[in-house]
Write a structure and sequence with these properties.
Largest sheet: 5 strands, mixed
Distance between the termini: 53 Å
Low-confidence stretches: 24-32
Order of helices and strands: HHEEEHEHEH
Strand content: 15-25%
Number of helices: 5
CATH class of the largest domain: Alpha Beta
Structural class: alpha/beta
Shape: elongated
């Protein structure tokens, strides 16, 4: 009887150690970086990855400074796009809309989009509607990010 109890105790200790090891590995696994924690250029590459995962082609991140208002150039079907990326702590205003409006024309693109991890101010939404600029806020970004998870 003592021998059976000793074997059971050893098995129980081994099972507990294995469970602890698996829990430790699970907790230490590499976690994706939250888009709110990204630096500007990292956010641009993240946005480019989202676009690729959602079927956009010819996705190119422009140079960091002097990009003439567009951070990403790409295509959706036959439509050429210029995209401005804003990873901010608060609402995105009209300056982002102005930047992509200029960038869209500078690069000769058919459409301009502003992507952000936040939301847009009412004046930004109004200006975008007048200038035919597409706005993708945090909700749109999360929908695009769902394609990365599949």
């Amino acid at each position: 009887m003592i021998r059976v109890n000793s074997i059971a105790a050893v098995l129980l200790v081994c099972a507990a150690a294995a469970a602890a090891f698996l829990i430790f590995r699970y907790l230490r696994r590499e976690k994706p970086v939250d888009m709110d924690e990204m630096e500007g250029h990292d956010f641009e590459y993240y946005c480019a990855d989202l676009l690729r995962a959602n079927g956009y082609t010819h996705v190119e991140v422009t140079r960091g400074s002097g990009d003439f208002g567009a951070d990403i150039l790409c295509m959706q079907g036959d439509v050429t796009l210029a995209i401005q990326c804003k990873c901010w702590d608060g609402p995105v205003g009209v300056s982002a809309v102005q930047e992509i409006y200029a960038g869209r024309d500078y690069y000769g693109r058919m459409a301009g989009i502003v992507m952000t991890n936040q939301y847009f101010t009412a004046p930004a939404r109004e200006m975008a509607a007048r200038l035919n600029v597409i706005l993708w806020d945090r909700d749109a970004m999360e929908q695009l990010a769902a394609a990365l998870e599949t």
